[in-house]
Amino acid sequence: MTSRVMVVGAGSIGLFVGGKLAVAGADVTFVGRRRMLDEITASGIRLTDLDGGDDSLPADRFHVATEPDDVGSADLVLIAMKSAATAEAVRDLTGKIRPGTVVLSLQNGIGNDTVIREILPNCVVLAGMVMFNVVHHEGGRFHRGTQGVVAVQDDPGLAPFLGVFEQAGLALRRYPDLRPVQWAKLLLNLNNPINALSGRPLREQLADRNYRRCLSLAQREALTVMNRARIAPARLTPLPPAVMATLLTVPDGVFRRVFGRVLAVDPMARSSMADDLELGRKTEISWLCGEIVGLGAMVGLPTPVNQRLIELIVAAEQGDRRTWTGAELLEQLRAAHASGR
């Protein structure tokens, strides 16, 4: 039987995942902003990736809507908008969604599933994370620029959908407890503000030792407060998070030789935060560095590096846009770290 899927949040991630499911035979409806819906209705959706994959989805193979009025017919709902919009978007589902419907959060940060569960207590709400980067190109093209999987909290409710995800090339990696994975992904996402402030593609930015030193400072600070809070992040990289955070600082040549897989990124891939700043949108900084600052306050430890990254991103959101060199940004974060404020 065809799975009926509604994607709430038709951005790059939602359109890539939902588009792949539609290619695999699911009946998919995308709910999002009119600008994006008009684009994909006019051009269809093209899904490409750094491994050479290339799928085209004509506009008659999916549905679009600006409001989730037809959510009552959905078997699976994917929540894929920015974290700040979660509560408002999910409230629009109340009174329309069927009790028992599986609702899967595919969002950055910690706790979006908790927010959704409080609003939709009669649904099967599960945490999930998309572990790869997707870049939007004009004309309805969405390009997966990094390696990665879709990680989810395991639940019997997922059973009817495992086949279509696998056929879509997005076989779900299931975990009994997704929280350690979410914290590990958060550590990786601390690079998002650094990438956004650098103004460079991810591969170019990560190849620069000074930018990696910035990431190391942010990650080591985060690991310190996680340790105080007795949070053990999962291992998502070739080495444990604490070791990887330290080895980010090795010289560029050594990093390329030893950690070449980290740089196996499409040349044009950028963080979603960089895209948000370019489009004049609010970023998810409060759900990334803000999580670390909040946790630090909870356990009584200062988090000046992550706080300074928040300040720089907020300034950029408010119009103070500039491109920071690795040396300039490192100076800012080292000064914050030294002040301990």
What's the topology here?
Layout: E1 4-8, H1 12-23, E2 27-31, H2 34-43, E3 45-49, E4 54-57, E5 63-65, E6 76-79, H3 86-91, E7 102-106, H4 112-119, E8 124-130, E9 134-137, E10 141-144, E11 150-153, H5 162-167, E12 172-175, H6 179-189, H7 191-198, H8 202-206, H9 209-228, H10 241-247, H11 252-258, H12 272-278, H13 289-299, H14 304-317, H15 326-339
Helix pairs in contact: 7-9, 7-12, 7-14, 9-10, 9-13, 9-15, 13-14, 14-15
Notable traits:
341 residues; eight-stranded mixed sheet; alpha/beta; 16% strand; 12 strands; 15 helices
Give a short summary of the structure:
This protein is an alpha/beta fold and 341 residues long. It has helices at residues 12-23, 34-43, 86-91, 112-119, 162-167, 179-189, 191-198, 202-206, 209-228, 241-247, 252-258, 272-278, 289-299, 304-317, 326-339; strands at 4-8, 27-31, 45-49, 54-57, 63-65, 76-79, 102-106, 124-130, 134-137, 141-144, 150-153, 172-175.
Describe, in plain words, how this protein is organized in 3D:
The chain is α/β, with parallel strands linked by helices. The chain is 43% helix and 16% strand. An 8-stranded mixed sheet has the order 5-2-1-6-7-8-11-12, with helices on both faces. The N and C termini lie far apart (57 Å). 47% of the residues are buried.
Mean pLDDT over the full residue set: 93
What portion of residues is helical? 40-55%
User: Count of helices?
Assistant: 15
Label the overall shape.
globular
Distance between the termini: 57 Å
Q: Give the uncertain stretches in residue-range form.
A: none
Q: Count every beta strand, where a strand is a DSSP E run of 2 or more residues.
A: 12
Structural class: alpha/beta
Helix-strand pattern: EHEHEEEEHEHEEEEHEHHHHHHHHHH
Strand order of the largest sheet: 5-2-1-6-7-8-11-12
